[in-house]
Amino acid sequence: MMRLKQQIESRLSTPRRYCVVVMLALVCLEASGCSLGVMAGKLFFGDPLVTCEFTRRTNIDLSEEHKKVLVICSTPESIRSDYPSLNYDLLEQITYDLKRREIVVQDTGEVATWLDDNGGVWNNVDELAENFEVDYIIHVDIDEFDYREPNSPNLLRGKAYGTVSAYEVQDVDGYRRALSVFETNYTSEFPSHMPVSIEQESPKVFRKKYLDRIADQIGRFFYNYHSSEEIY
Questions:
Q1: What is the pLDDT of residues 108-140, one digit of tens each?
Q2: 99-114 pLDDT, tens per residue?
Q3: Whole-structure pTM value
Q4: Do residues 115 and 91 lie in contact, with contact meaning Cβ atoms separated by under 8 Å?
């Protein structure tokens, strides 16, 4: 490899020689490991922006078009009985993450007040479209959630599964309707390699950390981010 590099360098001008050396370095790094290849790519080409899944499917960038978004979370009764604040905790954190990315989001306090006034339940997204002046509704439906390892009370591992949907609010025959434009499944397990002992981290701290992680992962369906910000 070194001899080949020297032969090529001797026949090329300085600019072309630089490009070839860079490409050879990338090949060598790629051969020695994927992470090194990624690091080399960032070194020479910068930190690329990853287009979020919502924008790829709809061609809509919520942060650039300044569309107002309402976030709503739901869980089955079996989860609410164990984690009664889960819906609001996720709603608040996802809203915070979207706002940080300059997406206009309906105030969580107003959403919580409306839910309380309606017994904490809502029938369908059209009901939300009628009661809030927003352009899009993001519905996070968590079907499974836990942060304790099964049959191991001293071990912590977060697991969650659900569906993330988005609706565009439009006027249809004089009524505000929520039309489906996006849907994807969401699955999470953290940490994936091995659980955390309660001697290392308290259940309360771990639960907060895991909820923040879920909110961040779900938020990335709707805003673009740099590859260095990828969550593993």
A1: 999 999 998 988 778 899 999 999 999 999 999
A2: 999 999 999 999 999 9
A3: 0.78
A4: no
pLDDT in tens, 31-45: 444 444 445 445 555
Which of 97, 105, 92, 93 has the alpha carbon at shortest distance from 66?
105
Over residues 197-222, the mean pLDDT reads 95
pLDDT of residue 128: 96
**Residue ranges of the chain that CATH labels 3.40.50:** 50-229
Interval 83-106 mean pLDDT: 94
Cβ–Cβ under 8 Å, residues 168 and 178: yes
Torsion over CA: 63, 65, 69, 75 (sign) = negative
State the DSSP string of 25-80: HHHHHHHH-HHHHHHHHHHHH--PEEPPHHHHHH---HHHHT-EEEEEEE--HHHH
Q: Does domain 50-229 have CATH number 3.40.50?
A: yes
User: How crowded is the C-beta side of 1, counted as CA atoms within 13 Å?
Assistant: 10
What tokens were used for 87?
Answer: 């819906």
